[in-house]
Amino acid sequence: MTNRRQFLKESAAATAAVAAPAFVRGQNLNSKLQLASIGSDGKGFSDIKAMSAHNYQKYVAFCDVDLERTLRVKEISPDTPIYQDFREMLTERGDEIDAVTVSTPDHMHAYCSIMAMKMGKHVYCQKPLTHNVWEARQVAKVAKDVGVITRMGNQIHSHQFYRTAVELIQSGRIGKVKRVDSWSGATGHGKSGHISRPKGEDPVPDSLDWDSWIGVAPMRPYSAAERCYHPWGWRDWQDFGGGAIGDFGCHILDPVFTALKIKGPPNDYFAEHSGMNGEVWPAQSTFRFTVPGTEFTENDRIRITWNDGGRLPSTGWSHLPDREALPRSGSLILGETGSLVIPHVGAPRLYFTETGYSDDYEMAEGRDHYHDWIDGCILEEQPTDGFDYGGLLTETILLANIAIRFPGETLKWDADALKFTNREEANQWVSRDYREGWDLKKLITA
Prior knowledge:
Shape: globular
CATH architecture of the largest domain: 2-Layer Sandwich
CATH superfamily of the largest domain: Dihydrodipicolinate Reductase, domain 2
Oligomer: single chain
CATH class of the largest domain: Alpha Beta
CATH topology of the largest domain: Dihydrodipicolinate Reductase, domain 2
Low-confidence stretches: 14-30
Distance between the termini: 24 Å
Strand content: 15-25%
Number of strands: 16
Strand order of the largest sheet: 14-13-12-11-7-10-9-8-15-16
Largest sheet: 10 strands, mixed
Structural class: alpha/beta
Number of domains: 2
Mean pLDDT: 92
């Protein structure tokens, strides 16, 4: 494997001048980066399909806890072995696998990623990077210690719309940034439609390994209710997903963190919501937090406000269109001389305080988020949003899902100590108790 990686790297470097923007795309090599997937349908399938368009990759194993959800990947690579347990796949095929794509429900991201990285595999993991704050720290630490190439699956990070927004802010078009409002039209429990667990227990389909699907989380009965847990609806449940901010926070806040070059997590969090229980996330939430200022901000701390469930930013943007004209999801960046509207997957809209709307800017070049990661694995060059960056962004949104449990309070976060200093009860949510046989802490120390 070492010889093959070196051959790929040397060949890619030799052809870099004619293969931009992906350094190794389009050349003829007699060896390829060998990939394995953990999660092979839904987002997993779209990840695999995007990776498979790169000329220097080859999937050597697919895995999904539900074998019925491996039918489409067989069409892409009919002879590739199929596994139901990723631990078995990594153990049996470890010598063949260079890199792994992780596209599972959130609660399994950390376990899958850390096991693969400890075996020396490069990892591409879907957003949010983990299910709790402690996991985010551990995933980033293991990636750094092992030295593998990583990337979080916030693919819009590479889209020309978000890259353009970053350039506009960093070039000073709206001056130093004073305030940020971000929002998502999604609701916290809008995917499953459930607000409590279904009663009773349904037979587990023959194709599904329910124990592996539950993984690190507490065991619960399988339900065949429509869009309840598997394959859809899991994101609403606190045991498995992160609600609206867990779904969209790493996307919508990405150009904000990238443009401002934010390097540290929040030190405080205030939250309120429309009502919640101990099972699913609220339908509507509002969060306010401050992060360290940078060369692009007016002050040494900057306040960021998040709304979801249809809530929009508050008033105070008089030079912008009416609030009803704002996109369903996105961000408003208030600067000294103007403002920027960044729609979620839409061209940025520039407004100046005195003259209003302006289209006087050039669109940045987009990148292929997936292919750039493969190129990075081959060339041993870390993309801009590896697990260090992904861990910080993920920690920020997961702190919100702790604060939401204490509505109306301002929680103080000590990032170095990894704890809240003014609400001891909140610290139980920084990590979780891991189920027997799926103890992530034992995996890390093994």
